[in-house]
Design goal:
The structure holds two protein chains of two kinds. By secondary structure, chain A is α+β, with helices and mostly antiparallel strands. Helices cover 39% and strands 19% of the residues of chain A. In chain A, strands 2, 3, 4, 5 and 10 form a five-stranded mixed β-sheet that branches. In chain A, strand 18 and strand 19 form a beta hairpin. In chain A, helix 9 runs antiparallel to helix 23 and helix 13 packs antiparallel against helix 21. Chain B has one domain. Chain B has a three-stranded antiparallel β-sheet with strand order 1-2-3, with helices on one face. In chain B, a hairpin with a 4-residue loop joins strand 2 and strand 3. The radius of gyration of chain B is 21 Å and the shape is globular. Classes of the chains: A alpha+beta, B mainly alpha. Chains A and B meet through helix 1 and helix 2 of A and helix 6, helix 8, helix 11, helix 12 and helix 13 of B.
Chain lengths: 602, 384
């Protein structure tokens, strides 16, 4: 009985210990609860929000691009897409079959849809087809009862209403590539497009706008439960360009089947009124995804539609360069209005003979006559006396030999050679013969059509340092245009020569002359060899240009301006392998200037 | 050999009415309170719906409450008389599931009785306590303190525990072992024997580790470092801590637990229901839930103190400790203090078997308390 008591006492004592331990442990749980919910509560609240809140980027509409008259050059077009939500369609095969009856799907498209559905959660919409016309959308909506899970969503596509007329300066938009910097959340949005070339690329930041975002509550599987908050973002800024789309279209059409480039500038501001490079291509092909066939056709075309010839085509300026040489010589005092040289058709120098384009010569010529007739011998002599350095200095003042600052892709700087350049490049001394060739804009000298337009503008505006631009200049901007140190008197002499080219008797471009209520144009032709003419060929008779294959024919150039007294417009036209500056380039330039005058662009 | 502790009570012949009014209704109130919290939680777990869980759980509880009263009001002597028989029957059932049990939840734990699925391991927790209580009831202290005296009960424990481990249901097996260890401790097995067991445990742990299933090893490793596999096995515990912590002091409000309702929290209607409750009702709610259980457990040990018979005391201590194990392991698990072992929170988590076994336990505890003045003979049941 005593032991029994002990047994009971032991049990009581031990049970008391167990009770204390149990209470102690349960309070331990309460303490842990305090630690997690109060002490670390904020940390876990943040983690819970990270779990449940998913931010989606809202894409702002891209800025519209207008021409100087408010006509739309680049806009956003509604793009209708047909999407399907797998979990809402009981029989996917049947639904797609029905869809196929309304809008045919290729085998590739069908495969892609099935793959996308397989790779995504059942409630994620998968694209069936996009860029649907409104008619197709209505047809789909009409059939909606038989298309469970199919719905239409609208997005924005970039469109270029003028198509190939604006390609070479607007550029186009395309998908974000690996190389693009990823500093904007918009760039991560699937299907987002950014400017890939042209002004679309240069003004990408302004046009794009700022991303908005919407905070959504999602569950553990990513399904959206509700919207929590929304920030609309900022739409992209609109651009107003200096281009006049009427002149742009006219100028591009004026080329017909020819390939080449033309630039029309306002000579006082440098505003670009037309900017042509032909052949062109339709940039809308790129926004909706270009087919392999179309892309290859563009790549393989021998007329290089993908190249922006106005800034990346470098051509020998040929006789158009005589304006630079004449002005340089007048400024240097090497010649004046009365200085004459006699052209006999050729000029020997060392053991080489330089020919004038007119084999029988021009006779006695002063600078105005030499420009009018485009006499090579006069300019050989002048260049010889003047030397390359002075020619190069004048050419650079007039905007040649360096990039214009237009910042379009692949702009090339042209080339104005001098002795230093040659030493650096070839390690050889400059030869007098090379100055002679440079005097007629051949040899090393290269220029882009845009540079030629700038050059003629700077001459005819009285020597003002305008820079080509697509953006309208404010009055203040115009005030900053510098006067170049070129005398008015000499400019007038050169202008007189240019006037005579078109309006003088037997001027090289006299066929292109016009008279609109007394308003006339001035200019200068240029025809430049693409191939070398050998001595043998010269002896046996030079093959007529028309008989040569297209790619070996001469380039045809013309730079001009109008009106003759108070110039407003300047134009540079280059017709690739156009054979003759006077026969092909001058008429195009003439038509363009007439149209500009008729439009009276403000 | 009857003893009368209080005048007026005739332990021998308590009428059914007397027995009923002898039931501790404070204890019953706490149990009903838990069941209400459970129903409310399951209503929330189904995003504010009575189906599929809350309604069924409520009906089950009503049935289980009836069972509890039945267990509380039957003759206390029956428990002593049939303890061993019950133990052997349950042992047979355990062997039966091993041989041809129904495969559910990746482990053989059920016997399908069509009406409900019988989980013999749950029954074993009760039967084990009863059998051990009967054994120690018949022992002298010297026998308990001798090595010879504890060999038989140790075998009684190890055999079913081994069967449960190979089911495999490590959680239940460990719970059974912990509960029986508390019983061994309570009856007076010496400290040094526990120390020896602990030492042996440390030595044999690496060997035991070798025999664990991969998923069990993962659970332990994940518990030690949840970040080890944040999307796999660590996901549950990380999300549970986020849900709890984000609840703060006052909680996110009924039906407003984002972690629970957006499905970041797994198993929110079963093992992780405490997490959901504390996310919605905060530290206040969580603490209240723990305190209600604390009251139930302290009540239980108090009953043990005031019960006359050694058998009764030991039955209460065993069953109460078993209940404590459920509460502590489940909550410690969701709080990230123990590995995730798949122990539900009784009366709150959705599940019929645990509800029935826990309510039956409460019934037996109440029965012992109702008959607390009755002394029971040592060796065998003897009416004289």
């Amino acid at each position: 009985m005593n032991r029994d008591n002990d047994k009971g006492k032991v049990l009581l004592r031990r049970t008391a210990m167990v009770t204390v331990a149990a209470v102690f442990l349960l309070f331990g749980l309460i303490f842990r609860l305090y630690y997690l919910q109060v002490y670390q509560g904020d940390k876990y609240k943040m983690m819970a929000d990270e779990n449940r809140i998913s931010s989606r980027v809202l894409v702002p509409p891209r800025g519209t691009i207008y021409d100087r008259n408010g006509e739309v050059l680049a806009a956003n077009e509604q793009n209708f897409q047909a999407l399907i939500v797998a979990e809402q369609t009981p029989d996917l095969e049947k639904t797609l079959k029905r869809f196929n009856q309304i809008i045919p799907l290729s085998a590739d498209e069908k495969e892609k849809i099935k793959k996308d559905i397989h790779h995504n959660k059942k409630f994620v919409p998968v694209k069936i087809k996009d860029n649907l016309s409104w008619e197709k959308v209505s047809a789909l909506l009409l059939d909606a009862p038989y298309l469970p899970g199919v719905f239409i969503s609208e997005g924005l596509n970039r469109t270029y209403p003028l198509g190939e007329y604006t390609t070479h300066f607007l550029g186009y938009v395309g998908a974000v590539s690996e190389a693009d910097a990823k500093d904007d959340p918009l760039l991560m949005v699937p299907g987002f497009k950014i400017g890939k070339s042209g002004l679309e690329k240069i003004f990408e930041k302004e046009l794009r706008g700022k991303a908005g975002d919407v905070k959504l509550e999602v569950n553990a599987y990513g399904r959206i439960m509700k919207e929590i908050e929304r920030d609309k973002g900022t739409p992209g800024k609109d651009l107003h360009l200096t281009i006049d789309s009427r002149l742009q279209k006219f100028a591009q059409d004026a080329f017909g089947d020819n390939s080449g480039a033309a630039v029309v500038l306002d000579v006082h501001s440098g505003e670009i009124l037309a900017f042509v490079s032909v052949p062109s291509f339709d940039p809308n092909l790129f926004t909706t995804g270009i087919s392999h066939k179309d892309w290859n056709a563009l790549l393989e075309n021998e007329r290089h539609p993908l190249t922006n010839k106005a800034v990346s085509g470098q051509y020998s300026p040929g006789s158009t360069f005589k304006i630079v040489v004449a002005l340089a010589a007048l400024e240097a005092g090497v010649i004046d209005l009365n200085t004459t040289f006699t052209c006999s058709g050729s000029m020997p120098l060392g053991n080489h003979v330089f020919h004038c384009w007119r084999h029988w010569g021009h006779g006695k010529q002063n600078v105005v006559e030499a420009l009018k007739n485009s006499c090579d011998i006069f300019f050989y002599e002048v260049a010889l006396e003047l030397g390359i350095e002075k020619i190069a200095a004048m050419a650079r003042q007039l905007g040649m030999g360096h990039k214009t600052g237009i910042s379009l892709d692949n702009e090339r700087s042209g080339l104005i050679p001098d002795s230093e350049w040659k030493m650096k490049k070839y390690g050889e001394k400059w030869q007098q013969g090379e100055s002679v060739i440079a005097g007629i804009g051949q040899g090393y000298v290269l220029a882009t059509p845009l540079q030629l337009a700038v050059m003629v503008s700077r001459v005819v505006n009285g020597g003002y340092d305008i820079k080509p631009t697509f953006m309208k200049l404010s009055l203040k901007d115009k005030g900053y245009i510098k006067k170049l140190p070129i005398s008015r008197k000499n400019i007038d002499i050169v202008k007189k020569g240019m006037f005579e080219v078109v309006n003088g008797e037997r001027g090289t471009a006299s066929a292109a002359r016009f008279n609109l209520n007394g308003i006339k144009m001035g200019g200068k032709t240029g025809t430049t060899q693409v191939r070398r003419i050998s001595m043998e060929e010269r002896k046996s008779g030079i093959i007529k240009d028309e008989d040569l294959p297209w790619r070996l024919r001469n380039h045809a150039l013309f730079i001009g301006y109008a009106p003759q007294d108070n110039p407003h417009y300047a134009v540079a036209v280059v017709v690739e392998h156009g054979s003759s500056g006077s026969g092909v380039a001058a008429p195009i330039a003439s038509k363009i200037l007439q149209e500009a005058l008729r439009l009276d662009i403000k | 050999m009857y003893k009368y502790y209080e005048a007026g009570f005739k332990s021998r012949n308590l009428s059914l009415k007397e027995k009923f009014f002898n039931i501790n209704f404070g204890y019953v109130f706490c149990i009903i309170l838990l069941a209400i919290i459970g129903t409310v939680s399951l209503y929330s777990a189904a995003n504010g719906n009575w189906s599929p869980w809350a309604y069924k759980q409520l009906v089950r509880f009503c049935v289980a409450l009836g069972l509890m009263f039945f267990m509380a009001l039957i003759d206390v002597k029956i428990y002593l008389k049939y303890s061993y028989i019950a133990y052997f029957l349950v042992l047979l059932l355990l062997i039966a599931v091993e041989v041809g049990g129904h495969v559910g939840m990746g482990a053989q734990r059920w016997i399908d009785l069509k009406v409900f699925k019988l989980q013999p391991s749950e029954l074993m927790k009760i039967a084990m306590v009863m059998a051990l209580a009967k054994y120690f009831h018949g022992c002298t202290l010297s026998k308990i303190e001798s090595v010879r005296g504890i060999v038989a009960p140790i075998l009684m424990v190890l055999f079913p525990a081994a069967l449960i481990v190979i089911q495999p249901d490590l959680g239940t097996a460990l719970m059974l072992l912990f509960t029986t260890m508390v019983i061994f401790f309570a009856v007076g097995v010496q400290w040094w024997k526990f120390a020896l067991l602990g030492g042996a445990g440390i030595v044999f742990a690496p060997i035991a580790w070798h025999f664990l299933h991969d998923y069990q090893k993962n659970r332990v490793l994940t518990f030690l470092d949840p970040e080890r596999d944040p999307l796999g096995s660590g996901y549950h515990i990380i999300q549970s801590k986020i849900a709890l912590g984000s609840g703060g002091v006052f909680g996110k409000g009924f039906l407003n637990g984002t972690q629970s309702h957006l499905n970041f929290l797994p198993e929110k209607h079963t093992d992780f229901i405490f997490t959901m409750f504390s996310e919605e009702f905060g530290m206040i709610g969580g603490t209240l839930l723990i305190l209600i259980n604390l009251v139930i457990i302290v009540y239980g040990y108090m009953f043990a103190f005031r019960t006359t018979s050694y058998f009764g005391k030991l039955v209460i201590i065993g069953l109460n400790t078993n209940y404590f194990m459920y509460i502590f392991i489940n909550i410690a698990m969701v709080l990230g203090l123990l590995p995730v072992v798949g122990i539900p929170l009784p009366l709150i988590s959705y599940g019929g078997t645990v509800m029935l076994s826990v309510m039956a336990s409460f019934g037996i505890i109440l029965c012992m308390d109702v008959n607390r003045h009755l002394n029971l003979g040592r060796s065998s049941f003897d009416d004289n």
